[in-house]
Write a structure and sequence with these properties.
Distance between the termini: 51 Å
Radius of gyration: 19 Å
Order of helices and strands: HHHH
Number of domains: 2
Structural class: mainly alpha
Shape: flat
Length: 108
């Protein structure tokens, strides 16, 4: 099998394992329990800048000894979770709004 084939096969196996893990969690919640998941992404930087932060961190993760203090990790954290009180307050406010809206949809 080629390197690409092994990688794609590994990606498939990882996705399959994640699906199985999620299924086990849902079964463990008991009969009649409803679970609704929601993921929200709140942008911090324009797409190309975010991509420019992701690529070096991804390369580090897959091809080098990854350390939390590496500049690529710091750049990714800055791109997706800046340490700015105003940004954090805005994101938490939007998240609360999304929670209220989604709760209303689920209850409808």
């Amino acid at each position: 099998m080629s390197d690409t084939g092994r990688r794609l096969s590994g990606d498939y196996a990882e996705a399959r394992d994640r699906f199985r893990q999620a299924a086990r969690v849902r079964r463990g919640m008991g009969e009649g329990v409803r679970y609704d998941g929601l993921t929200c992404e709140f942008g911090t930087q324009p797409n190309l800048q975010a991509l420019a932060a992701l690529r070096p961190e991804n390369r580090l993760h897959h091809w080098a000894a990854s350390r939390e203090d590496h500049p690529a990790k710091a750049a990714m954290r800055a791109a997706f979770a800046p340490r700015e009180a105003r940004w954090e307050a805005a994101v938490l406010g939007h998240a609360r709004e999304m929670h209220v809206l989604c709760h209303a949809l689920v209850e409808a």
